[in-house]
Amino acid sequence: MANIAIMGFGTVGAGVAEVARMNHDSIAANLGEEVNVKYILDVRDFPDSPYAAKMIKDFSIIENDPEVDVVVETIGGARVALDFTRRALQAGKHVVTSNKELVATYGRELLEIAKEKNVNYLFEASVGGGIPLLRPLFQCLAANQIEEIAGILNGTTNYILTRMVKGGVSFAEALKEAQAKGYAEADPTADVEGIDAGRKICILSDLAWGKEVKPAEVSMEGISALDLKDVDIAASAGYRVKLLGHAMRMEDGKVAAYVAPHLVSQDNPIATVDDVFNAVMIRGNAVGDVMFYGRGAGDLPTASAVMGDVLDVIEHRTKRRNIGWSEGACLADIKELSMRWYLRGEFSAEAARKECGEAEELAPGAVITAPMKEADAKAAAAALGACAVLRVL
Ligand code: HSE
Fold first, then answer.
1. What's residue 262's pLDDT?
2. What is the CATH number of the domain that holds 92?
3. Whether residue 108 sits in one domain with residue 243
4. For 300-325, how does the pLDDT look when each residue is reduced to its tens digit (9 = 90+)?
5. Are residue 166 and residue 84 in the same domain, yes or no?
6. Cα–Cα distance, 203 to 123 (Å, whole number)
7. pLDDT tens digit string along 327-350?
8. Cβ of residue 296 lying under 6 Å from some atom of ligand 1
9. Are residues 152 and 124 in the same domain?
10. What is the set of active-site residues?
């Protein structure tokens, strides 16, 4: 029997307990041994929970119990979670997490401790919720040189955009719905301002290129400044506005990574991804483009990924997964990337063509330019008096 301890009984932690309960027998049959939730750590009291007898408040009980094989960290944040993760790894326990803030910011250090102690630190659930994404990236695509990664990495904002466009609800109402469904972060600013997606594109880049991409050095723009008018114009012209994380390896070996709202042509499968679903395209030099799609947030989908890691760890108790990245990716200046831009204002298509060369007219006063650098797009926007400037994938 393998014993696990869950730290943090919020949406994901409770989901992990539920998946372990609901699929107890099939998991035991597949794994060849039972998985028992021995402890659940939380500062709060849950007297009416069916797990009340397992609830503890003192981390040292987990740290000092030799029967605990795997610690599941679903506390979130990078304070208590960092301290407990360090201590659990130092105590020789395998750790599995859904905590993208912790992995994006301290993953390199924590993976080094895991290596020293010959234990696993796995975090499939930290990107893409329930979508199998990180393991395919570091395992199935290991023979490729990864060229580009682009996708919808935040379920809350995709849910909000979908509800606003298709359900006609306000931004505030849609956010409340996302919170009620357990998609949003405790502080939804991280979702809405692109920070959550930013952490996820950092983790994907770390794994893809083996060098640490620090969240603090990545440009992150969310959807709070988005004007519904642009979302509508885009939709009627065959585009959808999506918050995308985007990273690519440049010819000089530098990595460009950023998060921003983009217009995506409806011909691209990413444009049709709605609600809490995430979709990520990874381009490898051998495989070409592969797409991953599924629920990017929520209790059971995220718990599915966490439990997948738990089972992997139990099967690889003595042979750790060799995952890690070294210090210091060389970051490209995203201002140097050439891409198409959407501009909207009180200008004619002719005036836009004078400023930008080619321009595809989406609606009166709304165009998509030919590929150009950000500074040139902003200069053209200023000359045209454009009030909206968005990237186009
Ligand atoms: N708040 C996150 C999202 C949860 O909406 O995608 C999953 O990481």
1. 97
2. 3.40.50.720
3. no
4. 999 999 999 999 999 988 889 889 99
5. no
6. 10
7. 987 899 999 999 999 999 999 999
8. yes
9. no
10. 200
